[in-house]
Amino acid sequence: MRIVVKLGTSTLTGGTKRLQKAVMVELARQIQELRRAGHQVILVTSGAIAAGREKMAGMESQTRTSSSANAADPRKKDENLIDKQVLAALGQVYLMSVWQSLFEIHNTLVAQMLLTRADLEHRERFLNARDTLLGLLASNVVPIINENDAVATAEIKVGDNDNLSARVALLANADLLIMLTDQPGLMTADPARDPSATLLRELDTIDASMHAIAGGSVSGLGTGGMATKLQAAQIARQSAIEVVIAGAKQVDVLLKLVAGGGDGTRVRPLASRLESRKRWLLSGPQSQGRIELDLGAVEAVRVNKKSLLARGIVRSDGEFERGDAVRMVDLNGQSIGIGLVRYNSSELSLIVGHHSKDIQARLGYSVGGVVIHRDELIVFG
Ligand code: GLU
Q1: Domain 282-379 adopts which CATH fold?
Q2: Can you give the pTM of this predicted structure?
Q3: Which of 49, 251, 266, 301 matches a 20 to 30 Å C-alpha distance to 375?
Q4: Which residues line ligand 1 (CB under 6 A)?
Q5: What is the DSSP string of 288-348?
């Protein structure tokens, strides 16, 4: 399974002003265990701004006289956007250095991807981000993602890491999104006000009543709350991704949730994975493009579920851009399926029939031998 795990600031700091390494050690161990069992895990981590405050407060208290040191409250009430950007830039390296050292214990490499909404909405950038993310997973590296807070103004920001994690789950075509938080999940009422509130364990739909329960709830240190978690769950479930919102403090929480157990709110996906992928492919940018496959390529794609390589293509018709959905046909012109191309039509015309290793020489660059990846194509019939 491909799993996106989202950890909020309150989880990572345990509600304190510092990153709680004990919590992070434990989560890294569980992620490692999931990976050992054959799952792929992408981590969406908050905590950069909180980590920045921690570092800044540490520095200030070192330079201050001992009499005023205890006055240091790292959360300044009048922190503005620039302060937050500064703190994020400062804290992000610290946050990553902690994750890196924890995964290093398991001989595992981590990589950092800092994204903004603009990266996920601009098609070229979306595709680049996706290639990198999938490339990291293929290389057995744990991608660790946060919003690029240092450059992200309100206009280009996703704004909270709950929504970011849902978009990352879409980007990665994940099977499961786990959002860990300081609440046990979505409750029937605000437990702080109503002691009889109980956990909603299974949601088949997300409607106005749930948004009303979640209200504007915001946990102490991060940006999100239950409201943004529901928004995120809505985005993910519409793309057939299962979502669980759960309390981070349960023992072996990730292992239990992935095995289908544990406590939390499970949000059932709207459609099957295949249906959703078909819809996703078919709803993409329309193109009049058509590529003709030789017999071997038809068999590779249809029977062996392989990616389509340039050398299996006989010719291409019509104009299309990288990322467009293009029809695949056999030598008789019969439709085989549809898929997203990694080269545009003029590039493709120069490489059809050629071996993957010749692409670089023919184009002067290469994004690999795969013209349509098997994860991005559907075969008819
Ligand atoms: N990107 C922010 C951080 O790392 C957190 C955003 C959020 O809490 O949702 O500090």
Answers
A1: 2.30.130
A2: 0.76
A3: 266
A4: 8-9, 46-50, 88, 146-147, 149, 160-161, 222-224
A5: --EEEE-HHHHHHHHTS-PPEEGGGEEEEES---TT-EEEEE-TTS-EEEEEEESS-HHHH
